[in-house]
Amino acid sequence: MSEKYPFQTLEKKWQKRWADDALFVADPQAAADKFYCLTMFPYPSGVLHMGHVINYTLGDIIARYKRLRGHTLVSPMGWDSFGLPRKTRRSARGRIRNPLPMPTSPACASR
Q: Which single residue of 18, 56, 68, 101 has CA 20 to 30 Å from 109?
């Protein structure tokens, strides 16, 4: 087994496969029942925890189930940046309460 992950080769391979199979295409005119599965957006400055795993796993299970049952599915993955401008402003003014450690910080690793 190679010690380096061949990122560019594998990414091209799988992106082509997904495009060929139209895995990320939802036809709004399709006759199939439509289903929109939106899970909680990740917050840009939050610390990852088990709640994230549970939330995203359940969303993936529901989306996969609905797709396998023939639904036309839209399940976007976004990023919650609605609170970011406010947090940035408060940070610049020195008003951040309880700044959270990033997942790679020693404070987070000790949890």
A: 56
